[in-house]
Design brief:
By secondary structure, the chain is an alpha/beta fold. It is built from 20 helices and 14 strands. The chain has a five-stranded parallel β-sheet with strand order 2-1-3-4-5, sandwiched between helices. Strands 7-8-11-6-12 form a five-stranded parallel β-sheet. The C terminus is likely disordered.
Length: 496
């Protein structure tokens, strides 16, 4: 057992207090008072859990005094002891005083001890409940504060001017369109290649709209079969299909009051197109296995890397669904159409990678950025992000050089649009055999030179050539002329 509970006994008869003290002293810390003034002084300085008060005292009844105690020390559990007044005569006063128990004299010692023990437990339960309520209030307040701060941070992150680009970027037209469309509660279809940043545009639309304080949920529609997709979006009831062991709330219901982003919407089946169209038309969902419909208030933003107008003309996509999704369309240009953004975007992605991995570097060499700008980036921003992370992880110098780039990127020559296509020289009609082999050889030579930091001795050894043979090939392909001296010095290679 822990520390004894403190009991205050108030009675104007000293002999009654002596009796109470003898009975209770083994189980409790007993304090006594013969007047209400003494009792108040004790309550003011001691931590009392239970008060035993006689009903009939001079000047003030026990119930009247305990009303005062309730007002000043509400946590103390109050018990009335009396042998002169029936409970029915003072029942209203007992309620007003919040009295826990009424015991009539003569009381049995075991009964009194049991009553006090229960009163002590009640005291501690009340304190635990009050503490829990306070903790819940603080936790709720903290959660609301954190949620509010997170929402404001998201709004800052996805504001219009946060999309990384240069002053003359083709992305500016897209951002201008986002700024015009975002405040209006209409559906939007975002088109663009995979990895070009369609979800960023969707988030910008949401966090700059009137629904910014509501949830934003996203689903890749091309990754799931119809039944699972229907369950993900609209929910299901337990037993609706094999594996449905409990009810599930769908994303449409979770996003009530906010935005649903449906990525790869061009990949859904004709059967699911019908179901989705019905939901968009009626604004109601019906979970799998349920007969009840639920109304939802959402804004739908969809995205696709397909040409849905062509799909509609070919009869592979419902025209009514297309027009329901595409109240307005926004095109995100691929990275190869905004090469001027690549250095700025690469630096921004590097800062993110530095924060994520905790590895500090100063940035990229100019040569590395030139190689990045020359490449066609079929995977768009996502591919660039992966490349930047790999360079950071593999780099051992303060500046990340071009030698850290993947071979496919190094084989793209700055300023030569002909070096911009994948697998150069292998496509049909690319020229004679000799011309195609020369094209491949030039790319291999340049990639090896950059990877070896323009050290011709290392490059010759790697390619199994003599220094004279390497120099002859470089001169034949014009590669001696493409390396500026400042790049050579910055890369740390020697020209020999």
């Amino acid at each position: 057992m822990g520390e004894k509970a403190t009991i205050l006994a108030l009675d104007d008869e000293p002999r009654s207090l002596e009796t109470l003290g003898r009975i209770l002293e083994d189980d409790f810390n007993v304090l006594t008072a013969t007047t209400t003034g003494e009792a108040e002084a004790i309550l003011a300085r001691e931590w009392v859990q239970v008060i035993l008060c006689d009903q009939r005292m001079p000047g003030m009844t026990g119930v009247e005094f305990l009303k005062r105690v309730r007002a000043l020390w509400p946590d103390v559990v109050r018990i009335i002891l009396s042998g002169y007044t029936e409970p029915s005569d003072i029942i209203q006063g007992i309620n007003e005083a919040g009295i826990y128990q009424y015991l009539t004299k003569p009381w049995h010692p075991d009964q009194l001890i049991l009553t006090i023990n229960n009163a002590v437990r009640l005291f501690h339960l009340q304190r635990q409940s009050d503490l829990l309520a306070l903790e819940m209030k603080v936790a709720t307040s903290t959660l609301e504060t954190r949620t509010s701060k997170r929402r404001e941070a998201l709004k800052r992150t996805f504001r219009y001017d946060s999309l990384v680009r240069t002053a003359d970027s083709p992305l500016n037209a897209t951002v201008d369109q986002v700024q015009r469309v975002a405040p209006f509660d209409i559906s939007v279809l975002i088109t663009g290649e995979s990895g070009s940043g369609k979800e960023l545009i969707a988030r910008a639309l949401h966090y700059n709209s009137l629904r910014a304080d509501g949830p934003f949920v996203a689903e890749n529609c091309g990754a799931l079969p119809d039944q699972l997709l229907e369950s993900e979006l609209f929910g299901h009831k337990r037993g609706a299909f094999t594996g449905a062991v409990e009810d599930r709330v769908g994303l449409f219901e979770q996003a009530d009051g906010g935005t649903v982003f449906l990525d790869e919407i061009g990949d859904i089946s004709p059967a699911f197109q019908v179901k989705l169209l019905r939901v968009l038309q009626e604004g109601e969902i019906r979970p799998l296995g349920s007969n009840q419909r639920r109304r939802v208030d959402i804004r739908v933003i969809a995205a696709t890397n397909r040409d849905l107008e062509t799909e509609v003309r070919a009869g592979r996509y419902r025209d009514d669904l297309y027009y329901r999704l595409a109240t307005t369309s926004i095109r995100v240009p691929p990275l190869r159409e905004r090469r001027m953004d690549i250095p700025t975007l690469a630096r921004a992605l590097l800062e993110q990678a530095i924060e994520q991995h905790g590895k500090r570097v100063r940035g990229f060499t100019d040569e590395a950025l030139e190689c990045m700008q020359a490449y066609h980036w079929p995977g768009n921003v996502r591919e660039l992000q992966n490349e930047v992370q790999c360079m950071l992880v593999m780099g051992s110098r303060d500046l990340l050089g071009a030698e850290l780039l993947s071979p496919r990127i190094l084989q793209a020559i700055p300023g030569d649009e002909g070096w911009d296509e994948p697998e150069p020289g292998l496509e049909p009609g690319a020229g004679t055999l000799k011309e195609r082999l020369d094209s491949l050889e030039a790319r291999i030579l340049r990639e090896a030179l950059i990877r070896n930091r323009w050290n011709k001795s290392k490059t010759a050894r790697e390619l199994g050539l003599s220094r004279v043979g390497l120099r002859s090939k470089l001169e034949r392909h014009g590669l001696e002329k493409i390396q500026p001296l400042k790049t050579r010095r910055r890369a740390g290679g020697n020209g020999d």
